[in-house]
Structures are given as C-alpha cells and as structure tokens.
Amino acid sequence: MQIIAVNDAAVAVGLEIGMPLANARAICPDIDVFDADAAADTQALVHIADWCDRFTPLVALDLPYGLFLDISGCAHLFGGEAAMLSLVCRLLSRQGFIVNAAIAGTPACARALTRAVPGRIAPDGEEAATVAPLPVFALGVEDTITRGLRRAGLKTIGDVASRAPREIAARFGQAFTDLLREVLGQCDAPINPRRPPPDFIAEQHFPDPVATEETIAATLSGLAQKLVAAMERQGKGARRLEASFFRADGAVRTVVVDAGHAATRANMIDRLFRERLDALMDPLDPGFGFDLIRLSASRVDTVVQEQRDLDVHTQDNDDVAALIDRMTARLGRQQVVVYLPQDTHIPERAMRIVPVQQHLPQALSAQWPQRYEGEPPLRPLRMFERPEPIFVIADFPHGPPAHFNWRRARHRIARVEGPERIAPEWWNLATGMNPAKNREARARDYFRVEDSEGCRFWLYREGLYRREVFEFRWFMQGVFA
Questions:
Q1: Sign of the C-alpha dihedral computed for residues 422, 428, 432 and 437 taken in this order
Q2: Which of 5, 57, 284, 378 could form a disulfide with 197 if both were Cys (CB 3.0 to 4.6 A apart)?
C-alpha cells in the first residue's frame, strides 16, 4: 500500500507521494489514512468544474486533480487577471479545497507554474523567461525522464531549453520535446472543453445570495427577456435552454428544457421553466442562497417569419406544439411520444415510437394505411413488441392448430380466418442474409383465430412447409380487443 496524496502537514513531517504506507507509519505513527477512491475524486473534480463555469464556459479536465480554464476575454469582468486568480483561489479555499493556480499563455506553461510557483502570472510572450528557473519536476513528466534529466545535469527547465531540440528528442522522445515547446510558449495546444459554449447567455450576479422562490422566478423572467432580445437581433430562436443555479457553498444545479419549435417569446420560456421546476422530484434547494443564476440557449434555430393571423391550421399547430412543450417539461421527453409508420413488412416494426417534441412535423404529415368503411380490423389493437412463442397441441401442415398453449393457458380454436402470407423484405434477402439464422428473413403465414371463449388472437406460422420435414414454429403476434 502506497501513499498517493498528502496534505501540507504530511509533507512537513517528511511524507511524500509514492512512499509505502509502512514507512510512513514508521515516520509518523499518528497519521490519519483514508482509502483512495479515484472515482469519487473524479466526481468531485467534475463538480468543481461545474462551479467554475461561472467564470468561463470553456472548462476542461486535467486529470487526476487539475482543471484548465480558458479565460480569454473574461478576466476584465472580474477586475483583471490578478484579481480573478485571487478570487477563484479564495472561493475554492472557502469550500474546503487546497487549491494552487497560475495564469499563462499556454495550458502546459500554466500547469508547470502551478506545480512550482502557484499564484504566478506569466506575461504574454514571456513564458520561456518565467519558467526557465523552475525545476524539471514542474514539467510533470514520468519519474524516469526527470531522473534522466538530473543525471545529465539538467536541473531546471532553462537548462533543458538550452540544449538542441534534436538532442532532447533523441534522448527522451518527441512527445517530451513537444511538451517542452508548449511550456516555453513556442507552440500552443488548445484545451478540450467539457461541453461546447452555448450560443447565447444571460446571467445575473447577486451581491447577497438569494433564496426565495419569488426572487428566483423574477430573475428567470428577466433573463428570459434578455435572452430573447439577444436572439431576436440575429433572427434565432431557442430549441434547448439551460438554467444554472450557482449556490454560495459551491453546489451547482442545472435545469434543462426543450422546445419543439424555436422559442421566441419570453413568456413561453418562463412557462416552460415553471412547469419543469414544479415537476422536479428533487426540489431546487437554495441552501444558503444562489449568488449567480444563468440562462443559456445551448441549441438554437433560425426563425422563419410566417403569417399566422389568418391561417387557422398554423394557429392550431402552434397551440398543439405549446401543449406538447409544457407536457414534456413536466413529464419528460421520453414520456410524451408519438407513433410514426415505417416502411417494413415486419408487423412488430411497422411503427416507431419517438418523442413527439422532436418529430411533430413528421407526425402531422405521416401517411397511415387506410381502412375501408365497414371493414373489420385486420390488425390487432394490442401488438406485442416481440412475438411470443406458443406451444401447438395438434399441428396441421396447411392450417392453424386445433389447440395451443399460451401463457400457461390452453385455448381451443373455434373459428379461423387466413392465412395471410407476409414475406420478408427482398432487400434483406439480397444482402446474403441467412434465413436459417435470422427469423425476420423467413416467411410468415398469419391467422386470425377465435377460441371457444370468444377471445381473438393473431397467430402466425414461421417458415415454410416442405414434404420432407416440418420447418416452422408458431408465435403469438397480438390480441384483438
């Protein structure tokens, strides 16, 4: 068992990362030891990254314990780089974390400064001079490379940079040479943000945290008006909106709503969030209050102006879309669905269940098979997602069974209508699909049957009858009303 993390008190008594636990107890018998939990550490880092979204939308993980924040164009909002650096460290320390931070023009340079001289800001274009006196361990490379550099007499980053790049690459590899160039500011490697920045953002900072529902609702309404005004200037409407609530103790709660059509009115956005907040199983807990509320449009569409005053059908569609949005916000996208017809011969795949919010135009224009007036239903009202096998008591090659067992019950067939043959799609057969291995590639003979008690079923026989051998099985496809 080895030590993988230490605090300042442990370092003061001579403990270090990688030391066996037995040696550490010999040095300091009274140390407190906790089992390592890499998953919990990563989850805590993700929560910290969510909280850092208040400073910039471009936040990336630097596992196992680091974060990158791209603050280009954001520092002036917090009083400059020095003030922003102090603010981030102070707020995270208040939450109980030990934090080191630095600012530089490249991520690798900022990481090296954080390891060796936290709190340093490298001026633009002076990264090489800033990191030159730092020891080589600040590069964060493997121990074998660090020991090799020291054995070669290269104890600082400046010493390594003074050697020719081809010499360094020949000894330690091209990856180390590329890292050194990034640390020196000679090239840049952009960070990979956790999520793409939203298209439009409106946020409200509070000098004192707020906790009342009235204040939160009024703030969301005001932010919705600002967001709509910003989108209207560019002819956009929101399809997905995210409301982020930043608590004073560092917790962040995000509520997401979707719109079937591009939302262009503030009252529509306000109504969707009211429905969503009222339907939350875990209510929005303000704790000690929220000091920042942000409303962002993470997905937008171009708004096409249409005449709606005299078009009754357009107004009806708008009302239906608004109702669907409200139901989806309250119940969830997967709970409000619609059926769409599919071009297939397989009955259980004749329709597809999709969220109606994203497929309302397809649902309104879908073409379903027409049934003549007075014609009895040819398909059962209840269709099984997967056909259920039945056990045939008396099997006849060219007709339905006289009896069958299904779900531990025996049924005697009194009336039969059929067969109706449904052949597999020819395009599946053309691909060389083996019918013996794929049930959907085998022909089916369907029968509408009624048992002695008046229950009506839709059965089918899979496979074809040959004189030499019986090559078919029976399945229950659905039940008539």
A1: negative
A2: 57
Residue 301: CA atoms inside 13 Å, Cβ hemisphere, count? 13
Tell me if 184 sits within 8 A of 131, measured CB to CB.
Answer: yes
Are the C-beta atoms of 340 and 362 separated by less than 8 Å? Answer: yes
Can you tell me whether residue 70 is helix, strand or coil? coil
Please give the model's pTM, rounded to 2 decimal places.
0.69
Is 51 within 8 Å of 31 (Cβ atoms)?
no
Task: Give which of 333, 227, 320 is closest to 270, Cα–Cα.
Answer: 227
For the chain, the average pLDDT equals: 85
Parallel, antiparallel or unpaired: strands 236-247 and 252-263: antiparallel
pLDDT at 157 over 70: yes
- pLDDT of 395 above 80: no
Tokens representing 369? 């098979």
Tens-digit pLDDT profile for residues 16-56: 888 999 999 999 888 899 999 999 999 999 999 999 999 99
Residue 469 has a pLDDT of 47
Question: Three-class SS of residue 12?
Answer: helix
CA distance 5 to 34: 10
What is the Cα–Cα distance from 193 to 172, expressed in whole angstroms?
29
Long-range contacts, stretch 431-436, CB < 8 angstroms, 24+ apart:
none
Strand, helix or coil for residue 117: coil
Torsion of CA 46, 47, 48, 53, to 10 degrees: 90
Band the pLDDT of 437: cuts 50, 70, 90: very low
Domains, the chain, ranges and CATH? Answer: 24-183 (1.10.150.20), 200-304 (3.30.1490.100), 382-479 (no CATH)
Distance CA 351, CA 358 (A): 16
Q: 214-240: per-residue pLDDT in tens?
A: 899 899 999 999 999 999 999 898 989
Please give the single-letter amino acid code of residue 250.
G
Distance (Å, whole) CA 463 – CA 451: 24
- Does residue 468 have a pLDDT over 50? no
